Amino acid sequence: MEKTQISSIQLSLILSGFLFGSTVIVAPVQEAKNDAWLALIIGGIAGTLLMGVYVAIALLNPSKTLVDILKEKFGKVIGTIFAILYIWYFLHIASLVLRNFGEFVCTTTFPQTPIIVVIGLFAVVLLYAVNSGIEVLGRLSELLMPVVPLVILITAFSIITVHDFTAFLPILENGIAPVFKAAFGYISFPFGETVAFLMLFPHLNDKKNLKKIVFISSVAINIIGIIIFFRDTFVLGNNLIERATFIPHLTSLLIPGLNVDPLVDINLLIGGGIKVSVCIYAAARALSQIAGINDYRKLTGAILTFCVVLSIWLYENILEMFSWVGRVWSYYSLPFQIVIPLLLLLLSLKKGKPSNAKTESLKQ
Amino acid sequence: MIIVLAFFAIIIFYDFQRFIRKKEPVRVFALYIFFMAISLTISLLLSAGKSISSPAQWIEAVFRMIGVVK
């Protein structure tokens, strides 16, 4: 295994960047309309609990990656099959984020540039980051992640004059069902996707802080999510939000006498970049572990090329992508994010008990 | 189509040179060729304007069959 180590702050910032990811452009709780803030809170709490499951798996299997755990708990054959499915899942997430980024930039900033050029150039930068290793990704997060809340606050305060503070009322106009549905979607995107971190947790230098790191990152991203929701709702109103494709972009355009649109691009570049890097790293590490290759970097070029092609191939256009994600993503992610991790947790706990008993008997 | 071929030719040539110099095992070559072959085939089909159903459509079809997605 790679001997690189990352600090608690670095992991916390990578995790925050991953959770922030492409939520700048894909509003995951939009279907709850005015009550999206409730969906953010409910989904955030449930998502944090789900991440707690991943932390428990990591703590019960210290210094082991997802592939090691899968092979140990399910046996070599079934474990390898599951690991291959996870590799596909990580590649799918990376492709989705690449496509989000490409569509956003081509629609708002560079309308004359072909999407493949935008995605390709982004991928080259990310390839360099992933090949530099997890330590560099950690340091990069330390450097760039503080920009994200700063940009959000700048945008929020810049449009203070065009706010309607009652825009989120009435509460629960359409009942609680849409809130729960949106909250469910928010659990799978982005919280459930952090299952990829089971490939990164072994690199943490101080495992004692893992619970704290995950909790703090989750709370921070939930607060940012709620701020973004209120900012957009107060400025645009529910009707306009429903019709808009890129909500934060539209909000940033309303700032009088100032163009802060590139700041939204920067946020996406940081969040999306971290998310794709983590997914590519996780996929490459998993693949190299399965194939018995000593260095994951040998495959990152081919994997990222495949992701770029996949991002173009998956969907005809952004509306098809949003529609697919809304209808299918949560169900498709269910086995990867909830079913298999829960099985792993149960098997880890089951196997953990006799060994604890054994150690206690040894003490006696 | 020519741009796609040229792009892949450059990448594969550069990586293969590196692999041969470092005497990488066959597994590395096999996995590399697997990913690049799929990427190249899809890229050529897409650039030729041939509509091929995507994995997203396959996944949706499976969920429709199960009855999860309507």
Give a written overview of the molecule.
- The complex is a heterodimer of chains A (364) and B (70).
- Chain A is globular, with a radius of gyration of 21 Å.
- Chain A has a single domain (8-348), classed as Up-down Bundle (Amino acid/polyamine transporter I), CATH 1.20.1740.
- Chain A is built from 13 helices and no strands.
- In chain A, helix 2 packs across helix 13, helix 4 (76-109) packs antiparallel against helix 13 and helix 7 (147-158) packs antiparallel against helix 11.
- Chain A has 364 residues and is mainly alpha-helical.
- In chain B, helix 1 (2-21) runs antiparallel to helix 2.
- Chain B starts with a helix and ends with a helix.
- Chain B has 3 helices and no strands.
- Chain B has one domain (2-66).
- Classes of the chains: A mainly alpha (364), B mainly alpha (70).
- The interface between A and B is medium-sized, with 24 and 25 residues.
Number of helices of chain A: 13
Class from helix and strand fractions of chain A: mainly alpha
Strand content of chain B is under 5%
Number of domains of chain B: 1
Oligomer: heterodimer
Rg of chain B (CA only): 17 Å
Name the shape of chain B in a single word.
elongated
Mean pLDDT of chain B: 90
**Poorly predicted parts of chain A:** 355-364
Radius of gyration of chain A: 21 Å
How would you name the CATH homologous superfamily of chain A?
Amino acid/polyamine transporter I
End-to-end Cα distance of chain B, whole Å, is 37 Å
Examine the coordinates and then state which fold CATH places here, giving the name of the CATH topology of chain A. Answer: Amino acid/polyamine transporter I
The proportion of residues in beta strands of chain A is: under 5%
| Biggest sheet character of chain A | none
